[in-house]
Predict the structure.
Amino acid sequence: MSKIYEYIRHPRASELARLGHPIKTNDFRKPKSDNIFARFNSKFGLKITLVVGTMWCSYLFTILALFALPSAIKQGTYFIVVWLSSSFLQLVLLPIIIVGQNIQAAASDKRSEETYKDAEAVLKEAEEIQRHLLAQDEVISGIMAHVQSMMEALPPKATS
């Protein structure tokens, strides 16, 4: 008896096996451009972001912004608002936002890794189901062949 079903692996399953790991934020840290200026800009921008995106930098910027506060207070309400919006908020919030984004990126990487592991487990289970079904097909084919041979061995029915 011929095969009942021919298993064809999904291309995404092959791609998943070839990749070997989930895509993470760190995968994009190495510039892939052949242009020397683009590579330099990427590396330099990343270094600056890594330095500015720390709470220590936020503390330093807070101290720096507070140096201008006495001058703003002497000049009046308008300059206090200008100092608060342009100096303090921009200087202090920038590194804090980057720190938050780094935490979110790490959480996203962890979710990506867990999703990848889940997909890999589902893929392995599906492949095991395919092997089980093929084994069942072989047994069923054997049973059908045996039944067929028994049917052929029976004497022909008399027609009335």
Q: What stands out?
A: The chain has a mean pLDDT of 84. The helical segments are 11-19, 36-52, 55-67, 69-75, 77-153. The longest helix spans residues 77-153.
